[in-house]
Design brief:
The complex is a heterotrimer of chains A (158), B (358) and C (371). Chain A has 158 residues and is of the alpha+beta class. Chain A has three helices and seven strands; from the N terminus they run αββαββαβββ. A two-stranded antiparallel sheet of chain B has the order 1-2. Chain B has one domain. The model of chain B has no long low-confidence stretch (mean pLDDT 83). By secondary structure, chain B is an all-alpha fold. The chains are: A alpha+beta (158), B mainly alpha (358), C alpha+beta (371). At the B-C interface, helix 7, helix 11 and helix 15 of B face helix 4, helix 5, helix 7 and helix 14 of C.
């Protein structure tokens, strides 16, 4: 009886090992199961999800106009103090003073891509870009000014 | 036909006709030494790239594929990297033993190369106790590991070395018994005679079930003896970071690494010699045409093919199984492998006496 | 012998596992007293990744502090966010739309599977089998892609907000989740073949790290650690939140009390999570994904507590509000901290190799313990 149990035990053990080896052997011989993505080589075909949160950008149209009114909603929504809105006063053709942004400073090095600024923006002026290769040699390059030089606010955006 | 033994013979002939016998002998020794060192380097490169590719394909990865065609030169690049790295010696270490240990490991591996028959009539030293020599010299390996572990003055290294000591000493037994069961059939310890006795069929097939059991036990035992997973307790990376070679870096580390792979090659070569007929081609009974084609393949290719098949088997083990615990490791040896191999040896002896093998 | 354990004696070996060590999966530091290979005492030292998340949360508004909690238990980031969102909603008395509730539960369960997949691979890797890690990551990658598509990030999603979820589901979400379930069902037998059924693995796990039900309760363990000891502790069943009381799923209980029982609980929990997802994936109600909330959230004066079941156990969020826009005090009850506290209890007397297996089955995420 003891001998029978002993043999049974050895048989069961060997069988479980062989089952495992069959599984790894299957993958060894089936190279189509390989899932490696050769990243820097597949840059051309690499497509990120359209909602991927890479960095905050401010889209400009062909007339170099953006939609930002300088309301600082994004600055208030940001948990890390990533965004700083610097405002100025423009003189409209009618001679009135109007508040507009001078610079929208964005600190990429502080940003956690939480998307709260984008949802807070009432005029859809900023959005998330699908970039992800952010490394630079100098930290100061990570501080970005989102509005283009000389840009102004789009007509009709309040 | 082109063969290794002919090349060796013609070199010998040329040397003995050109120089006087003493100088010829010295030159032959130098050539053999250089050839062994060359074989070491080539084996290291080939086995490392092979291990990495096997691991990668099992793990649904591509593996090294950048340096050289299909990444084949990757291990050469690694060697260059290891050569230019700083070889650190820790302050608290026993410097003499610490620096000596990797060389002991290498020398043991080199000594083991001597009696292996690489091809027909191509052997460095066909001594009459070849198998005994191999199993006794291979147990010196543990000294280098103990040396490395103790002299590093590191607790992880020490524990790794102690584990390794217990492990290698135990598994020597079943490896020895598995070898003995073939010696019982052959009646000789000489490697060339063991190979010659398999001219009409390999022992794995001729020896019935006992030979197969002995083969399985041999493979398990040598996997443990060479500290390969699932028995890599000496360098269990999740428990002991890197075990006995935690403190080694650069080329000294590389020597340990290389000696591990060379040891794997040697034990697999011994396994191929004992169970799979060494350089003997594969023959099936009376199929004359088939046997003739098999004879046409050079004997060195047969030898290396069989050896690399066994090496692949050991790599396959490594990338499939989890690691054993130290007490389970010893249990496996003393409660399972040793009793089984003893009974198996008894069966084999009965088989040999009754002449039931082919 | 038993009295000697816990005392350091002449000839004992004291080794430091961590803060840099392959087995600790992070910056945990264990001071281990060894007698040969046998463990006499394990003393965890914490604080290497303490970022004072609780204190940080006190200076952030109720919308902002949720994103920080993704960095606690980063493997169940969704569930952390969920707990905070639920707690704030409790204070605001906001009714979450049905669609948002279903989305939240779906995301939670996907996160739970992803977390357990990673744990499964890392567990096998701790025991020296390196290959299962890659197979587990193949399945986990599918979930990560789903997360990336809908939430915009793979690990720290910040998708749950007070009142619902940040964005609506991606149009491909249902198809992708169904594909994942198919892949999972096709591949799950490999887990048995490679690890669960493997004799070496079973011997390493069975009878190791015995945690009695009484100890599990008195040390305040939760999640799979207690359920491995046969103690009911699933918050989803006992204190149901969202729609968990309407769903059909089993609370996985094992009575082995050892590492293998805890292992089985997690593997079977993945199946239960798949079951929940299958029930919901075709029945996502139409409607709003977010309730209408004020731009500036102010909780009424009072104390609010919400507990949820993360992949590791019970996570509690305790908010004390003074009526302002930021919390007066926030306390997180993290599952990992209590689970780590039993390590000395279960590891004493076993071998060093087993310690790694036990730490694996406790499923420690160090940022969750330190915060």
């Amino acid at each position: 009886m003891f001998l029978k149990d002993y043999i049974k035990e050895v048989y069961g053990a060997v069988k479980s090992l062989v089952v495992g080896m069959r599984r790894t052997g299957y993958y060894f011989t089936h190279h189509k199961e390989i899932i490696t993505e050769q990243y820097p080589d597949n840059r051309a075909t690499l497509k990120l999800a359209d909602r991927f949160k890479g960095e905050v950008v401010m889209p400009h149209d062909e007339n170099n106009e953006h939609r930002c009114t300088g309301c600082t909603a994004c600055e208030l929504a940001c948990p890390n103090g990533t965004i700083k809105v610097v405002t100025k006063f423009d003189i409209t053709p009618e001679g009135k003073k109007k508040k507009a942004i001078d610079k929208l400073v964005y600190h990429l090095e502080l940003c956690t891509m939480c998307n709260l600024c984008v949802t807070a923006c009432p005029s859809d002026a900023i959005k998330m870009a699908q970039t992800f290769e952010h490394s630079v040699y100098d930290r100061s390059k990570l501080t970005k000014i989102l509005n283009n030089p000389g840009s102004k606010i789009m007509e009709g955006v309040e | 036909m082109w063969s290794l033994s002919q090349i060796a013979g013609s070199i010998h002939e040329w040397l003995s006709t050109t120089f006087n016998p003493t100088i010829a002998l010295i030159l032959e020794m130098v050539i053999a030494g250089v050839a062994i060192i060359g074989l070491f380097a080539v084996l290291g490169l080939v086995l490392v790239i092979m291990e990495r590719k096997v691991a990668a394909w099992i793990q649904i990865r591509l593996g090294p594929n950048r340096v050289g065609p299909k990444g084949l030169l990757q291990s050469a690049a690694d060697t260059v990297k290891l050569l230019v790295k700083e070889g650190m010696t820790p302050d608290g270490a026993d410097k003499f033993l610490f620096n000596l240990a990797p060389f002991v490991a290498m020398i043991v591996a080199m000594l083991l190369m001597a009696p292996i028959a690489f091809a027909k009539d191509f052997q460095l030293w066909d001594l009459n106790i070849g198998v005994l020599y191999v199993s006794s010299v291979s147990s010196i390996m543990v000294i280098s590991i103990l040396m490395a572990g103790w002299s590093s003055n590191n607790k992880y290294s020490l524990m790794g070395a102690m584990r390794s000591g217990a492990q290698i000493v135990s598994y020597e037994l079943s490896a020895g018994l598995a070898i003995l069961s073939i010696v019982v059939l052959t009646g000789s310890l000489q490697i060339s005679e063991i190979v010659q006795s398999q001219a009409n069929g390999w022992w794995l097939f001729k020896g019935h079930i006992p030979a197969i059991i002995a083969f399985v036990i041999f493979m398990i035992a040598v996997t443990a003896e060479t500290n390969r997973a699932p028995f890599d307790l000496a360098e269990a990376e999740s428990e002991l970071t890197a075990g006995f070679h935690t403190e080694y870096s650069g080329m000294k580390f590389a020597l340990f690494f290389l000696s591990e792979y060379v040891n794997v090659f040697i034990v697999c070569a011994i396994g191929a010699t004992l169970f799979l007929g060494g350089w003997m081609p594969f023959h099936i009974g009376n199929w004359e045409a088939f046997n003739h084609i098999m004879d046409y393949i050079p004997s060195s290719i047969w030898f290396f093919g069989k050896t690399f098949f066994l090496i692949f088997l050991i790599m396959w083990f490594r990338w499939t199984f989890p690691r054993l615990r130290i007490d389970q490791l010893l249990n496996l040896e003393w409660k399972y492998l040793l009793p089984i191999s003893m009974v198996n040896l008894l069966l084999m002896t009965a088989l040999a006496i009754l002449g039931w093998h082919f | 012998m038993v009295e000697e354990l816990g005392k350091t004696m002449e000839g004992d070996l004291i080794i430091n596992v961590g803060p840099q060590h392959p087995a600790t999966h992070g910056v945990l530091h264990l001071v281990i007293t060894l007698n040969g290979e046998t463990i006499k005492n394990v003393e965890p030292h914490l604080g290497y990744i303490h970022r004072s998340i609780e204190k940080m949360s006190e200076s952030l508004t109720y919308r902002q502090f949720i994103y920080v909690t993704s960095r606690m238990d980063y493997l169940s980031a969704h569930i952390n966010n969920h707990a905070c969102a639920l707690c704030v909603e409790k204070g605001l008395q906001v009714e979450v739309p049905a669609r948002a509730q279903v989305i939240r539960v779906l995301m939670d369960e996907l996160t739970r599977i992803a977390s357990h997949e990673l744990w499964w691979g890392a567990m096998a890797m701790d025991l020296g089998a390196l290959t299962p890690f890659f197979y587990a990551f193949r399945e986990r990658e599918t979930i990560n892609e789903i997360m990336e598509e809908t939430c915009g990030a793979r690990l720290t999603m910040n998708y749950m907000v007070p009142g619902g979820v940040l964005q609506d589901l991606h149009p491909d979400f249902q198809r992708k989740v169904k594909e994942f379930i198919q892949l999972y069902k096709r591949k799950i037998h490999e887990y048995d073949e490679l690890v669960t059924g493997n004799i070496i693995f079973q011997n390493r796990m069975k009878g190791v790290g015995y945690l009695s039900p009484e100890d599990a309760i008195s040390y305040g363990c939760s999640g799979p650690v207690t359920r491995g000891s046969g103690v009911r502790s699933d918050v989803r069943k006992i204190y149901p939140y969202e729609i968990y009381d309407k769903l059909e799923f089993d609370e996985v209980l094992e009575t082995g009390c050892d590492s293998f029982a805890r292992y089985l609980v997690r593997v079977r929990e993945m199946e239960q999570s798949v079951r929940i997802i299958e029930q919901l994936i075709d029945n996502i109600p139409e409607g709003d994904y977010q309730a209408k909330t004020k731009a500036v959230l102010k909780l009424p004066k009072g104390e609010f507590y919400q507990r949820v079941e993360t992949a590791r156990g019970e996570l509690g969020v305790y908010i004390v509000s003074e009526g302002g826009t930021t919390p007066y005090r926030i306390k997180y009850r993290s599952p990992g901290f209590s689970n780590l506290s039993v390590l000395n209890k279960i590891a004493t007397g076993s071998k060093l190799g087993d310690l790694v297996a036990m730490m694996g089955t406790l499923d420690l995420v160090i940022p969750d313990i330190d915060r």
